[in-house]
Structures are given as structure tokens and as C-alpha cells.
Amino acid sequence: MTKRLIVFAYGAVSYAVFLATFLYAVGFVGNVLVPTALDGPATGSLATALAIDLGLLLLFALQHSVMARPAFKRWWTKFVPEAAERSTYVLASSLALIALFACWRPLGGEVWSVTGAAAGALYGLCAFGWALVLVATFLINHFDLFGLRQVWLNLRGVPYTHIGFRTPGPYKLVRHPLYVGWLFAFWATPVMTAAHLVFALATTGYILIAIQLEERDLVASLGEDYRAYRRRVPMLIPFLRPRTERLPLPVDVRSPI
Fold first, then answer.
1. Which helix (H) or strand (E) holds 191?
2. Global pTM?
3. CA-CA distance, 88 to 111, in Å (whole number)?
4. 111: helix, coil or strand?
5. Which residue has the higher pLDDT, 254 or 10?
6. What is the mean pLDDT of residues 157-175?
7. 132 burial class (0-12, 13-18, 19+ CB within 10 angstroms)?
């Protein structure tokens, strides 16, 4: 029981760190109510600042992707209790983001800047993105995703059971509403600075790579159920027919190349 209590406390602390990090991220991207933010005047060498920012983004991407792979999990749980594996992943991701928040270097400059109704619309889309991220996690079981369910079941001595494959709400429109939310949150801004653009481009590239890795694992785990879902539901854009189901173009409108 003592070990179970320790694992549960570890999971609860990891979740608390994640929650604080998530709330800080909203302020960091939106440049509100936090001591360090995504945008600001450039300080020091542009090349040095850009190298630091890209290095921080790469650190997060590597941690987030490597630790999510099944092979790593099988190796990692030789040293970490299986019930705490997800909490450890959540804590490591939070620490990587905290490092990014603390060491990020603004680059100055503006790519675009809008005011009035257009600015209000972009703020609204950004808020929609953050809300979609949060709602999407609850639809697929927020507490399992962030490790609390695992440590709670372990505390009670109940074997862990997988949630199973479900497609609630927006998961019927796109396969990855969580990533759609991130894209809205990162791109919808009335003032796009150079640093914000670097951040948005890098995170978008990472999202597209992460989807390929994640779907490969899902196909390996769920088999035909996920293949059928992938044929039926588009990846990120609602109502767009998945590529695997697009019919060939008529001969008279094909490209001659």
C-alpha cells in the first residue's frame, strides 16, 4: 500500500505540474499574464536567438515522440512502475515545455498585424483552439490521457483496462481534433511576429510528423478498426474526403505529366 500511495502521489504531482504548464502555455502563446512570452523585442544576436528557439522546439519534439513509442514504453517500464509510465511521460513533457518557456528568445519584427473586427475574430479562433484541445482530451478520457486514472486504479489494486477505440463528437469529423485545436491556438493571432511564426511553423511540422507516427502505432494496435476509421474520416480538415478514398480523375482532366 505504501508503494501504491507513492505512485499515486507521484501521478497527482505530475498532473498538477502539467495543469500549471498548460495554463502558462495559454499565456505564453497569447502574451498575457506571464513573465516570459512568445513575442517581444529582440535581444542579442538574431542567429543565436533563432538557434536557441529551434533547439528548444527540437528538444520537446524528440522527448514527446520518443517517449510515446511502444518500444520505448516497453523498455522504460523495466525501471518505472507500469502504473506510473504515463505520469512520467506527462511530467517529462511538462518539464520540456517549462524549459522552452524559460529559455525562449523573442526575435522581434512583425509578419502581419491586424486590428478591429479582424483582430477580434482571430482572438476568437485562438480561444476556440484552446477550448477544443481541452474538450478533445475529455472526450477520450482526460484522466487516462494524463496518467491519473492509471495511478488511481493502481492505488485501489484494480488492474488497468484500456479505454478502447471510440470516436465521440469531433472525432467523427476529423481523426485528430486535438491537433486541430493546437493549430488554431498557434496560428490565430492578430499580431504574427517572427518568433511566433517560427513557433507556429515548427509546431505544425511536428504535428504532421507526430500524426504519421501515432497512426502507425494505432494501426498496429487496433488493426482494421482504425484502418476503416482512417478511410472514412479525414485527418485534420472536416468534410475533406480522405486520400485513400478519392476516386481517380476522369481521363480528360488528368495532368499530362
1. strand 191-193
2. 0.90
3. 38
4. strand
5. 10
6. 93
7. buried
All cell numbers assigned to 80: 518505472
Residue with cell 481521363: 251
- Report the chain's terminal Cα–Cα distance, integer Å: 68
**What are the angstrom distances between the C-alpha of 102 and each of 31, 44, 94, 97, 256?**
14, 16, 12, 9, 53
Query: Would you call 233 helix, strand, or coil by DSSP?
Result: coil
Which three-class secondary structure state does DSSP give residue 219? helix
CA distance 188 to 119: 9
Q: 176: pLDDT confidence band, cut at 50, 70 and 90? A: very high
- Bridge partners (DSSP) of residue 48 are none
Structural contact between residues 13 and 5, judged by C-beta atoms closer than 8 angstroms: no
pLDDT in tens, 49-101: 999 999 999 999 999 999 999 999 999 999 999 999 999 999 999 999 999 99
Under DSSP, is residue 192 helix (H, G, I), strand (E, B) or coil? strand
Integer-rounded Cα Rg, in Å, for the chain is: 21
d(CA 23, CA 139): 20
Banded pLDDT at 250 (limits 50, 70, 90): very low
- Residue 110 three-state SS: strand
Residue 89, amino acid? Y
Residues with Cβ within 8 Å of 174's Cβ and at least 6 positions away in sequence, in order, are 180, 233, 234, 235, 236, 237, 238
